[in-house]
Amino acid sequence: MTRDEAADAVEDDDALSRTTFAGGRRVEADGGSSAGGPDDQPTPIDVVLDGDVRPRWLNDVRIIVEATIVVYGLFILLGLAAGLNFNGIVSTLQQVTLLAASFALVVLALNLHWGYTGLFNIGVAGFMAVGAYTMALVTAAPDATFPGLGLPLWVGVGAGLIASGLVGFLVALPALRLRADYFAIVTLAAAEVIRLVFNSSALHEFSVLGVELGTGSGQGMSFPNLRNTVSRTLLYVDGDPAAGPTLFGRPFVTIGDGLELSTSVVEGWVYTVVLVALVAFVFVVITRIGNSPFGRMLKAIREDELAARSLGKNTDRVKIKVFVLGCVFMGLAGIVWQGRRGYIDPNLFLPIITFYIFIALIIGGSGSNTGSVVGALLFAGLLFEGPPFVQRIVDATFDLPQPPTVYDGAVALADLDPGPLLGYAVAELPNLRFVFFGAVLIALMIFRPDGILGHRNEPASPIDLRRERPPQDREATVADGGKEDE
């Protein structure tokens, strides 16, 4: 069958654009594809845009870049309106990018659990805490107020990843035998147990094999600042600014000097670039997993675990593997997110952190890695960081009265003076974020229940069974592998 004949036989009602054939594959406008024969690779590689066949990853990059431009544009406009100088605007963009990349890393890990496998893990914050606390205990100085082992940073990061995976394995053994709702309860309980253990006075200071350690319990503990360590190691020879820039750091130092950026802003951008590279790495890894036979097994479990079991698949083993891998990524997110502070305490890992991460995934669309990144960017930039930034701008620009209660503002409004009520609303903008969260979720449930890119949720089958097959393919037999008799 020729490509032209196949194209005439295909009828696609819900594609966003026309259908084409590339390399024996039928390629859809939304990035999906179906096989044109048994020897074809059914992975969704190409996408049709404006008549051109482009790589799927290029389309994903375009979507992420467009979302980034939107968020950056809003913050630049707000910064200019507030009278921020160039250094202030660049610093603001760095903070937004850092927060968005941190969210993206952990949202991708959650998407591996929930979007790919259907594991409703609401204990994300607990696994982040395991990674961050392990790294802190390994890298903190032995003579600190709450001592650690004083080992190098890379050892601490590796130990944090191993500890997160090990705890995930221990939680998975009993929890994955439960139904979805009970599984969610167990993961939430496990996360709270982990947080309370680190908050326990028993770990304030303790000894292991004669080595003194301590988490500080509720007081928290200090350790080498991850952001400063990473950025200065990459920027300067031997991490010393007086020794001059490294080959990697020379472009950053040159650009920073040319644009008259402060040293802290340049160092912040170096750490942010490293974090963005980590997000790209995790994105590629999870995408490769999703396109592999193991990934198709994950999607089969998501769609119908009983059917997968009936085909002889050991779904328990598969779920344990993917749960542990996701927990490792969550531990990594906890390390790079909270490690940049050089300080950690249990209140940084409250259950509400998991709530934030789920909102970001819902916005982007469960089951879509690109949606996970876009959702994290929009949530972190517009919903999480946006309201406090607007509050700071308004406070610095206008001298609004700030009544102690909304009642006082309402009384003033009754006297035709809206200033106090407006001042109260601006002062409460950080708390009003939760109202914005609810409004966004309600709007999504009404107009876009699958999220922004949830329509790209990948099916379990390697080929798209929802599309009508060409007549010639329907006549092929299973016995000959789908080929016509010669």
UniProtKB/TrEMBL annotation:
The UniProt record lists the keyword Transferase: no
Biased composition regions of type Low complexity, renumbered to the chain: 30-40
Cellular component GO terms, alphabetical: plasma membrane
InterPro entries for the chain: ABC_transp_permease (IPR001851), LivM-like (IPR043428)
Membrane-protein topology: Multi-pass membrane protein
Pfam families: BPD_transp_2
Chain intervals for the UniProt region annotation (Disordered): 22-45, 458-486
TM region(s), chain numbering: 63-86, 92-112, 119-141, 153-173, 180-198, 269-289, 318-336, 348-366, 373-390, 430-447
Compartments it resides in: Cell membrane
Principal location listed in the UniProt entry: membrane
Protein name from the UniProt record: ABC-type branched-chain amino acid transport system, permease component
GO MF term (any one): branched-chain amino acid transmembrane transporter activity
Keyword match Transmembrane: yes
Keyword annotations: Cell membrane, Membrane, Transmembrane, Transmembrane helix
Superkingdom field: Archaea
Biased composition (Basic and acidic residues): 458-477
